[in-house]
Automatic annotation (TrEMBL):
GO cellular component terms, A-Z: plasma membrane
Keywords: Cell membrane, Membrane, Transmembrane, Transmembrane helix
Species of provenance: Methyloprofundus sedimenti
Residues annotated as transmembrane: 12-31, 37-54, 74-93, 99-119
UniProt subcellular location: Cell membrane
Membrane topology, as annotated: Multi-pass membrane protein
InterPro entries assigned: ATP_synth_I
Name assigned to this protein: ATP synthase I
Signal peptide range: none
Length: 122
């Protein structure tokens, strides 16, 4: 019998976020600017890496008492914000960066959370 592999909601969001980042990077690739492609990739990483950290942090305490879950949620969110700041600080150290491409990829990746309730149904 075949076992159907189901992703959790958190993993679905991360996969869709990665696909959106790939789409934006491909869009900038089609525009033909290597700088924009690199910048869009960096912007996507600035969104994805902190969310991977957060997902790992909250899944670590799955099924435990509510107090531990809430504590891990706040710790995960704080860590996520800190990692985001560090990544953006590193990105903007590069003098040759396309800010529009960075922010386009970053914001596009974050739009996944706007549609998270729709994803939950599937």
């Amino acid at each position: 019998m075949r076992k159907i592999f189901k992703l959790s909601i958190v993993n679905k969001i991360l996969v869709i976020q990665a696909l959106i980042i790939l789409f934006v990077v491909a869009f900038f690739f089609l525009l033909g600017s290597e700088l924009s492609v690199k910048s869009a990739f960096y912007g996507g990483l600035a969104a994805l890496i902190p969310n991977l950290y957060f997902a790992r942090k909250i899944n670590k305490h799955k099924g435990q008492e509510a107090k531990k879950i809430v504590r891990s949620f706040y710790a995960g969110e704080s860590g996520k914000l800190f990692i985001t700041v560090i990544i953006f600080a590193l990105i903007f150290q590069d003098p040759k960066i396309d800010v529009l491409a960075v922010l386009t990829a970053y914001i596009s990746a974050l739009t996944v959370f706007w549609f998270a309730l729709l994803i939950r149904k599937y």
